[in-house]
Amino acid sequence: xxxxxxxxxLPIPGHEVYEVNRDGxxxxxxxxxxxxxxxxxxxxxxxxxxFHDQHGYKHYPIHRLVAITFLGLPPDGCEVNHxxxxxxxxxISNLEWITHQENVAHAISLGLRNHAHGEGIGNAKLTEEQxxxxxxxxxxxxxxxxxxxxMFEVDRKTVAQVVHWKTWRHVV
Length: 172
Prior knowledge:
By secondary structure, this protein is an alpha+beta fold. It contains five helices and nine strands; from the N terminus they run E-E-E-E-E-E-E-H-E-E-H-H-H-H. The strands form three sheets. Strands 1-2-3-4 form a four-stranded antiparallel beta sheet, with helices on one face. Helix 4 (145-152) crosses helix 5. The longest helix has 12 residues, at 128-139. It starts with 8 loop residues before the first strand and ends in a 9-residue tail after the last helix.
């Protein structure tokens, strides 16, 4: 259906009383005539709307509603990517389905996400040299995890993650 401004509106799959257009505007037909729906920011900077049914309110990200309506259901393991990196640009030309790994790589390439690890993380408790030393002392049996925790002023669980290669995997 098109409106007076010649915008195409399509029903949202699974929520046919609501429609969305290519710009990411959402409207409701619950009251017999189209009414624009108020959009709100979530805690991550994305816009969302709230749908009401017999169970109460449920919040939906606009970008996902636009993608499902105009691109179809996501392939397995895919999520919506904002091509230009702007979370409020929900125009269909700015959205695509990609894997989570591709989405993270895209965010890093745009400078939207920090790829820091190890000492590059601001609150790192250990240095790479300390990690090497912890592994060496543990493997040789010279110290227990508890003793290493005390020696390097970290929790025993932190030492366990280091010696079992759960963290600091990039340090050899």
